[in-house]
Design a protein that fits this description.
about 30% strand, alpha/beta, 16 strands, about 20% helix, Nitrilase/N-carbamoyl-D-aminoacid amidohydrolase
């Protein structure tokens, strides 16, 4: 199965321009035969808002206008896409990723881990359990950007049966190590394919570093962008490899199982509530 990632520039507060660029990218990757194409975090509205009030006009319900537009294109092309947007639910706004396909909105995700940066200073923490969705034969789970820094997020998706974890992201300077090493580690420790798609360009003084990549189930990089320009990545993935957690390197002498070898009875500390405070927000 061929998957693709579109590393693109995004213009703040110009969703129609950004949707047109997403459509152009999806047509290009579909022509190459990609079954799924991933776009960056907040690819529709942009990211660096100064207040919730400024962002509200660019937040939409799911389903809504943006998802309807991309569903029509997915239906026309017979493909799937994942893209970042701002989801409005009553008075709340979430940093969201959406999976659309020929059948409509297949699934959506609300970012759980929020850094003190850009629109995430004002959005609500994701309030839904991690979930895996079917894009044809592919079982895909979604995280967003900072979620990759918390291994529990990827592990939850692996336990739910994900073949692929998709990470739309807006990595600024300071995230180079995440791009270089963390994505590979998440793929390795869960024996899943992992695609991280960053944006490029500069928004309100914040440059974005590119470095999008797709990793194999053994943590090796299949393809990565080495530029801070717009780019398109492609990789073939073998679903059987992602579903084979029992890895036999030397029969009877060197075998590992990424899920069965866990000791969850020793991890209770990870689920205890904490009282630590982040800048400008509650616990």
């Amino acid at each position: 199965m061929l998957i693709a990632g579109v590393q693109m520039d995004v213009v703040l507060r110009d969703p129609q321009r950004n949707l047109a660029r997403i459509e152009s990218g999806l047509r290009e990757t579909s022509k190459r035969g990609a079954a799924l194409t991933v776009f960056p975090e907040c690819a529709v509205p942009g990211y660096c808002y100064d207040s919730l009030a400024e962002a509200l006009p660019y937040a939409e319900p799911i389903p809504g206008p943006a998802t309807a537009q991309l569903t029509r294109l997915c239906r026309e092309l017979g493909t799937y896409c994942i893209f970042g947007m701002l989801e409005r639910d009553g008075d709340r706004v979430f940093n969201a990723a959406v999976l659309t396909g020929p059948e409509g909105v297949v699934g959506s995700y609300r970012k759980v881990h929020l850094p003190y940066l850009g629109i995430d200073m004002f959005t609500t923490h994701g309030d839904r359990p991690f979930a895996v969705h079917a894009a044809g034969e592919l079982k895909v789970g979604m995280n967003i950007c900072y979620d990759a820094a918390f291994p529990e997020a990827s592990r939850s998706l692996a336990l739910l049966g994900a073949d692929l974890i998709a990470l739309p992201t807006n990595w600024p300077p300071g995230a180079e190590c995440t791009a270089c090493s963390v994505i590979n580690a998440r793929a390795l420790e869960n024996a899943v394919f992992f695609i991280a798609v960053n944006r490029v360009g500069t928004e309100r003084g914040f440059p974005f570093i590119g470095k999008s990549k797709i990793c194999d189930t053994n943590g090796q990089t299949l393809v990565e962008s080495t530029t801070t320009d717009e780019d398109v990545l492609y990789a073939d993935i073998d679903l059987a490899r992602a579903r084979r957690k029992h890895i036999i390197r030397v029969p009877g002498k060197h075998e590992i199982d990424r899920l069965a070898d866990r000791r969850p009875e020793m991890y209770g500390l990870l689920t205890e509530p904490h009282n630590l405070k982040s800048p400008g927000r509650g616990a």
